[in-house]
Amino acid sequence: MTATRQEAESAADLVPGSSFSARIYEPFLWLGEKSGFRRWRRKLISQVSGSVLELGAGTGLNLAHYPAGLERLVLVEPDVHKARLLAQKTPPEGVSPEIVRAPGEMLPFEDDTFDTVVETLVLCTVADPEKTAAEIRRVLKPGGRFLFMEHVRSDKPRLGRLQDRLENPWKKIADGCHCNRRTVPMLRGSGFEVEVTAEQDKFPMPPVARPIVSGIARPAPVAAGAS
Description:
The chain has 227 residues and is an alpha/beta fold. It has one domain: Vaccinia Virus protein VP39 (Rossmann fold, 3-Layer(aba) Sandwich). It is 34% helix and 22% strand. It has 6 helices and 7 strands. It has a 7-stranded mixed sheet with strand order 3-2-1-4-5-7-6, sandwiched between helices. The chain is globular and about 45 Å long.
């Protein structure tokens, strides 16, 4: 049963966040944005079309990159402090976003609602990535696309082990962010066909937050006879 907006907002109140972390979010990412994040965001967001949901819109770093002529743009952000900053951002001309407070695990939208779901640096933070992936798949229309940019666990043995050791302390200082999630395998295991379109390990970010990958995920066809 689809959650109501009220139920989703009540659940969003339990998501980690603070006014301090909301204020420092963009300054913390400033160097990464100057060094390439912004170009990655622009390239990713330029691919959206139709009715669009952005998951974990944060303070609105993606907002300027949305193309004109979208049928609908919904910005989902659970943290009330970031949502307030997001509401102050000026959208591109011709784009009228709706802001909805909800966690990724409880999206208050009917099945098959959106042509595109997009997120940047979000699946590292959600409490239940598998449930969030299931919600993304549920709200996508048949033939819809999920566009993502994420930092993931490194394949380099030493760095991967370091990320495993630092997962808990990193969560405490980064609003619940998990630095060692294997997001691409998780999406594939959640019924998506995933195409990784770019990977970069040289952004000026803490080692625990690298590498960065981006890609396109589509719901895999359901096998005939599957329930």
